[in-house]
Amino acid sequence: xxxxxxxLRLRRTRAHDWSRRMHAETVLSPADLIWPLFIAxxxxxxxxxxxxxxxxxxxxxxxxxxxxxxxxLGIPAVALFPNTAAAARSDDGxxxxxxxxxxxxxxxAIRDAGIxxxxxxxxxxxPYTDHGHDGLLSDDHRIxxxxxxxxxxxxxxxxxxxxxxxxxxSDMMDGRVGVIRTALEAEGFKDVQIMxxxxxxxxxxxxxxxxxxxxxxxLVGDKKTYQMDPANAEEALREVALDIAEGADSVMVKPGLxxxxxxxxxxxxxxxxxxxxxxxxxxxxxxxxxxxGILDRDRGMMEVLxxxxxxxxxxxxxxxxxxxxxxxxxxxxx
Length: 334
Ligand code: PBG
Fold this sequence. Notes:
alpha/beta
């Protein structure tokens, strides 16, 4: 063998834990996590989401406790999603603009409790419509883009009025970010952020979420005329460019893990904060493998969350947020 070969041994820096820590290019912290929470009617009420082991729908009083726990753990923001009562769902989703809907009650309660946590609210009509779509439908079941925009703007203003810090439009209608930004400015909500679900794909991985908010069984058809085709990446860049031009403060890619190439492309193309949503199906898939003893719980969770950060995300929306933050507080990096 040639003397001195190999001259570079990359294993040297990996040989000890202290050295691996010192050379880590990416360090995950609780500040890299956003925790999605499902709201239910009732008081001191919690119910498991059957398709998402470890995830519960919580009544407003328990949402406040969860938000407090997030703040205590150093998780900067929670994302709220309502499981609207069946009687409040309608063809036009008008419950979305009700100042006393579950979203507004939960945000107000978190604000009133003085908890220092960001409140992210989803803008889309699907938890409020009896057909499960994110927009208004014509008689022949086509999505009415421009008519929907007016409702989304009113929904966003309603959320801002009741405590939302970050409006997150997930509906994928054309033009929504601009219309929402204009409405927020007009109503005096200059400091409310918009985090747009810019590259949101028509994905099979949303199944458990639709179960959690009760929209899945109602859904007529699919969402392929507004959510993106998983085959496309260039189009994601066009969506992001538009949303930035229309006034988004940050953008999101969704789902997460199967779309890290999109995260990377957005990150290398635009100077904008980027987030990813590790969605319900990704969580369920991992959780079920963990519960079956097939995937190591802590290591699997931390590896995937770190991958999001390595790809360029400022933070990740994840149903693992609380578990991961707890683990980090124990000094465990998985
Ligand atoms: C609503 C919305 C969805 C998700 C977030 N906001 C579902 C959908 O578009 O059908 C999915 C989140 C998840 O799967 O965890 N428009």
